[in-house]
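Reply to dn_fold:

You asked what the input looked like. This is it:
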Amino acid sequence: MSMEKRLLLVFIIIIILPLSIISLISYNSYSRSIQENTVLYSRNMIGQMMERVDDYIDDMKRISSIPAYIDDIKLNLVRSNEYHEQRRQAVGDEGSQAFPNDFDLQLSIQRGIEGNIAFINNIKRGANSVYIFDEYGNGYYSSKDGAVRLDIADSYAFWKDKVAITHGEAMLFSTQEYRSNLKSNRYAFTVVRKILDRSLNPIGLIAVDANISVIEDQVVELDKVTRGTSLIIDEQGNVIYDSGRKILATNASENPVVLKAEGSSGSFYDTVDGKRQLYIYSTSPQTQWKVIIRIPVKELTKEADVTRNVTLVATLFIIGIALLASIILSFAFTKPMKKMIELMRRVQAGDLSVKFKVKHRDEIGQLGNQFNRMLSRIQHLIEDIYQIESQKKEAEMQALQSQINPHFVYNTLETIRMTAELNDDTDAADMISILGKMLRYSIGGHIHDEVAMREEMDHVVHYVQLLNYRYPSRFKLHLDMPDPLKDYAVIRLLFQPIVENAVYHGLDDLKLKMNIWIEAEMTSGMTRIKIRDDGCGMDHRTLEALNQSLQSKTAPRMEGSGGIGLRNVHERICLHYGRAYGMKVFSSPGAGTEVVIELPPFPGKPARLASSLEVHGRNGR
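and this is what came back:
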């Protein structure tokens, strides 16, 4: 059987027969079950709403516990308590003039606490105000909308009296009405908790106010769905919220509806103003807040009356439409599938130029788009493979060329050196020979390659030799290194930039000669290399800026090239060995400069024995 016929048969069995039976049953049972379904649905809605409210209150309780983990808040509360305790004793003993106000201390405490309160207040949406008090009722607070209680002293006294019996647990207070400093009446429910020090002694109090709009948003959504009105009360009958806002922050324990709402959940009918009402209630197991929904029965049955009249006509009409739609959809589904199967066969034959014409954005259209993208991607991949192969050959040629050019430079330098020797210019010959060794070492490998420390030292020796040709006998290099460390593996060009920095920044016109010492030592924790000179040194400000530049990734650029060269070496050390290692600079004016390099402990990875000079020497001739 083809897919069209199977789909048509399935549509007839699944749509027509069940629709006829369901329509008959639903007409008889709809009116009876609608109220039961409403009760169940409303209870679920209440449960979901209360879960969200409970989650919000849990968040408030967690927020109220934050000061217990912020030492800055506890420290400032202790400071505030000590200050006011001393002031109270001084005032009681000697009068109000005996202990003058320390406004700087009070401002420091206020800033320390309120800065953290602002952070706490931004953690959870809807936390209108956060108040923190010391043991003497001095309040520090922050509010998102700028509104705080005018009756803060009375509120503190009430809260402290209620939480006195607790041991640091959070206590929830139902909705209260208060006058704000913005000259408006507001409603909020509050979570209050003692703040304890490490010895579990109370040092203060935190109160987190949540604006009643947090609950109002949930209730409005609930009333919209149930088409009724809601009332939320606590265990004592205090009204947390009501849809009409007529009895907010009052006690409704004697209300007849509240009296009938016995137990944790249930429903009952009552008549109000001659109209029959359905009441559904449920209690939160966490806060013990009870939600009571009132729904007019007329609202429940008006749709059933309409359904009774149109069910029969609608059933016959839907059956006719279903038959017509079954025929149309069966062909609509299978036609693009057949087209795609045909295109896939052409792709299997090697034709990648095919394309599926997308007419709709349904699943078939999405499948067609993915099919077209797949073919396009395959074509791009084929083109990329050809391009990569071409680029690979070109890169190989460039690599060969890059090997030829350095050797041409080396051989040219060697020719110049031999010519200088033939002309009895030994100084020029020696300088060219040293320059050739330095050039081979500098570009003979990657900058992050590791070489033996003796090779690094040879490179520094060559550098100082060239300097002494330019400035005769002005520089003297002293090397002090244990023999085991000579085979220690270090990154290439580690010491020469530091020596160069010492030469160009440590020598002035007044000092005719400079000594440079390079010393190395081994410890259990690291390998330490010291490069120091007896140059002019640097002042404290320059030294501090230089060290800050070395330690900071975002440090400002140092004036001159010295800071840049030293920081380059430091960053290479950090990248190669890790941030635990690096470089520090010590100096004072007129006393020279010392650079300390810290590397991983020895023995480390052994350096290769064959030097880059020897390798390039063989390849360059």
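The chain has two domains: 1-346, 425-620.
Hope that clears it up.
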